[in-house]
Structures are given as structure tokens and as C-alpha cells.
Amino acid sequence: MTLSTSTQVVGYRVESEQADAMYAWAPLAGTSLPVVVFIHGSHTNPRMYTKYASLLAESGFIVVAPEQEREVFGDFAHYPQQAFVNWALEFVEAENLRSQSPIAGRVDRSQVFLVGHSMGGGTTLGVVGDFSQPGLSDQPWSVPSELKAAVVNATHNIPPPRTGDPVPVTNSVPLAFMQGSVDDVVTLDQAARTFAAVNGVLPRAFVTIEGGNHFFLTDVDNPEGANPDRAAMQWDQDASVEAAANWTANWFKANSGSSQAVALLQGESLSSNVRVELIGDL
């Protein structure tokens, strides 16, 4: 599998002493590039999000995604943890200094953003809320002081048996939820109720991907090895991935002061299949 789906983006993989590996995507041109840390879900890995990561990088970000297999609740598989964010930033700092690295001398470490999918979204909620999620804080972690905004995809924060109230999240940075309307793994209702329990800083946003299931941002629907969604995608997969990446990039840029990105979000003009509910001023 190629590590980039764009002729304008380089993608590569490096073995890691902390995680099993680190993946990075970066535009071929440009300097002072902000960093997006991407946290994969359970039973998925960064390669499954190559199109999404390539599109984010094409928008002017360095995307870094740790990969790790470990045992959680008696199951050995790909599982995220909250230390991913710290490991990714240590990696990008080292790559910025390594002369042979594609991102050498090109990193703006003062601007850090965070994205998570599914269990990786729950991991992200723990980071932005500065609390340890059960099973997701195996190693020491901390909230980066440079963190500017975050996006969680296909995520809820409702403890087992998933029928009660969500655990509240007091977010320290602007936070957006992105949710597929037909997701049968994390339902639209579960995500919406979790979003309603978020009580930290503004702005916040809830984005609905019409026709999207649990895997609206992976390269293919129900990627091999992932716990499948019984509901099939009802929107074109490539179009969904593109909308998710473009919307995420604009959320980050809007929270970095881009008036053009703010106008796009307020106009909800990124795609006819995307509905945006904004709370607070961008």
C-alpha cells in the first residue's frame, strides 16, 4: 500500500522504540508547517487512513500517526493510548533536526492539533479534558501546551453498557465532533449526547456526515481487521473522506485565525452532505 495518495505529499514510516512505528505525511513544499497528531481506533492502523492523512497534509499540515499493538482488556490488537500525542511530538521534533528527514527544518512546533477516530476519539477526549480514560493511559502522558484545537470522529464517551449518561468532558481547546449519520457502531444519538456533555472552552462544533457510517474517513468501508459496521456507507467513500479531511483542515485553520476558513465553516459550504452546528464564535 502506498503511503501517500497525493503527488504533492510525501508519506513515510519509521520504526519506533515507544510505539511500534510512526507514520508521517507532509506537503512537498512549504515551511513552518503546523503539526496534526492522528490517533487511530481499535483494530485499525494508520495505513487505513492514507487518503485522509494525505489530504490533510496537502492542506498544509504535517500529519503524524503512531501505531501500536498492545493488550487491552485481554485482547491483543491495535489499540491507541493517550501517550500517542507526546510520542508523536517527540518524533516530529527529532525529524525536524534529522537532516535526511522529509520534514527537516519545516516544523512549526508552536501549533499542534489533535484528531482521533473511534477509540482514538475517546483517547483524544481524555487528552483535551486532561483525564485518563480507562485502558487508554498505559504510559505516562500530558496535555501539550501548544495544543490549539481537536476533532473527534465517530466517538462517544458513554461507559459500558453504553446506555447511561456520557462522562462529561471539560475541554481545554476548541473541540469538534464529526459523526456519520448511519453509524451503527457509535450511533448519532450517542455522539450527540456526548457532545452535549462537553462543557469546556468555545467554540465547539458538531458535524454530521450524511450517509456516513463508522468508517467515513478510512480508505475503504469496513477495512480488513477492523470491527465492522453493520450499516453500509450510503455516500461515496472517496467523497466522504475528502469532506472529512477538508472540514477538519478548515476547523484547525479557523481556530488559527484564518478568516477564509471561518467563512467556509459559517457558510456550511464544504459539501452538500455535511451539516455543521457551531456553538460559540470562531
Structure description:
With 282 residues, this protein is of the alpha/beta class. The protein has a single domain (9-279), classed as Rossmann fold, CATH 3.40.50. Helices cover 25% and strands 25% of the residues. The chain contains 6 helices and 11 strands. It has helices at residues 50-58, 84-97, 119-129, 188-196, 237-254, 259-267; strands spanning 9-15, 21-27, 33-39, 62-67, 69-72, 75-78, 107-117, 147-153, 175-180, 204-209, 274-279. Strands 1-2-4-3-7-8-9-10-11 form a 9-stranded mixed sheet, sandwiched between helices. The chain has a two-stranded antiparallel ribbon with strand order 5-6. Strand 9 (175-180), helix 4 and strand 10 (204-209) form a beta-alpha-beta unit. The termini are far apart.
**Count of distinct strands:** 11
Shape assignment? globular
In which order are the strands of the major sheet placed?
A: 1-2-4-3-7-8-9-10-11
Poorly predicted runs: none
Number of helices: 6
CATH class descriptor: Alpha Beta
Helix content: 10-25%
Q: Oligomerization state of this entry?
A: single chain
Cα separation of the termini: 38 Å
Mean pLDDT, to the nearest integer, reads 95
The secondary-structure element order is EEEHEEEHEHEEHEHHE
Main sheet? 9 strands, mixed
Essential attributes:
282 residues, two-stranded antiparallel ribbon, alpha/beta, nine-stranded mixed β-sheet, 11 strands, Rossmann fold
Secondary structure: elements and pairs:
Elements: E1 9-15, E2 21-27, E3 33-39, H1 50-58, E4 62-67, E5 69-72, E6 75-78, H2 84-97, E7 107-117, H3 119-129, E8 147-153, E9 175-180, H4 188-196, E10 204-209, H5 237-254, H6 259-267, E11 274-279
Parallel strand pairs: 3-4, 3-7, 7-8, 8-9, 9-10
Antiparallel strand pairs: 1-2, 2-4, 5-6, 10-11
